[in-house]
Amino acid sequence: MKARDESGTGAGAGQEAADTAQAAEAGRKRADAAGALETLGRSSGPASLILSSLAGGPKHGYALTKDIESFAGVRLAPGTLYEALSRLESYGMIEAVESSDRRRPYRLTATGAAALSTYLESQRKVAEVGLSRLAGSWEMT
User: Fold this and answer.
1) In angstroms, rounded to a whole number, what is the distance separating the alpha carbons of residues 78 and 80?
2) Where residue 60 sits, what CATH number does that domain have?
3) SS3 category, 88
4) Backbone angles phi, psi at 108, to 5 degrees
5) What's the total number of domains in the chain?
6) Which residues are within 8 A (CB) of 15 and not within 5 positions of it... i.e. 6 or more apart?
7) Collapsing DSSP states into helix, strand and coil, what is residue 44?
8) By residue range, what is the domain housing residue 47?
């Protein structure tokens, strides 16, 4: 039997409303983050590389640089790396992890994973169209 609050409604009604509002807010944040990666403009390249690296697990700056260099063949300058980390953290896409030494590792958040997935899917579509059109009208050897 459900308990009733003073208004005569189920005691769980207030909690259900709060849960619904919280779920709506989380969904809005995910949508904002996905759009945010697109709106980073010229920074979306470094951001997508960083998020892709962190999808494999937490890393500090030097480890990020080395990982990105190994899978993308791109070396991010320290200024570019740390500016992108700051922006991604402000958007809630990454978060700092406690460390026992002076290094500051970061990890991907659920918001960052959703944004990266959306971004990479759109980039996949662009790549597929471009490759298809090249195959149809240009002889590629």
Assistant:
1) 5
2) 1.10.10.10
3) helix
4) -75, 140
5) 1
6) none
7) helix
8) 36-124
Give the model confidence (pLDDT) of 66-96 as tens digits: 999 999 999 999 999 999 999 999 999 999 9
Give the number of residues written for the chain: 141
Whether 59 is in a domain gets the answer yes
Element (H, E) at 96: strand 94-96
Q: Which residue has the tokens 């937490």?
A: 58
Q: Which two tokens stand for residue 66?
A: 């080395």
Tokens 């298809």 locate to 132
Bigger pLDDT: 54 or 121? 54
Tens digits of residue pLDDT in 20-51: 767 666 555 555 555 666 655 556 889 999 99
Say if 1 falls within a structural domain.
no
Q: For residues 94 and 129, what is the distance between their CA atoms, to the nearest angstrom?
A: 31
